[in-house]
Amino acid sequence: MAQLIVTQRDGAEVIIESTGDRSVMELIRDQGIDELLAMCGGCCSCATCHVYVDPLFLDRVPPISESEHDLLDGNDSRCSNSRLSCQIPFNEALDGLRVTVAPEE
Predict the structure, then answer these.
(1) Which of 47, 54, 64, 75 is the most buried (most CB within 10 A)?
(2) Backbone angles phi, psi at 76, to 5 degrees
């Protein structure tokens, strides 16, 4: 079972365990972390699932797509490790992945 470690905006950490291939956004949403709005449901059209990926994992997540880049481009809190959690498939290869929920826009 792989673990996803989520740091919420207040600094609290939540460990989510997963066995199946689901997106990071789905895992966070289904855990009940409501500060990650995910308004489009994972269609890469709203940027309300913005997270910061731990720099140690950036080379292990899929490259950012042009549409994801465009959505994040208009976000004031974007930084070099910003990603949309709906665009990160989570599996055993990402065991221990740490993400931080970005500030609300």
Answers:
(1) 47
(2) -65, -25
Q: Which domains can be identified in the chain, with CATH numbers?
A: 2-101 (3.10.20.30)
Q: Give this prediction's pTM.
A: 0.94
Separation CA 60–CA 89 (nearest Å)? 11
Chain centre to alpha carbon of residue 62: 12
Strand partners, 84: 50
36-79 residue pLDDT tens: 999 898 899 999 999 999 999 999 999 999 999 999 998 899 99
| C-beta of residue 28 within 8 angstroms of C-beta of residue 16 | yes
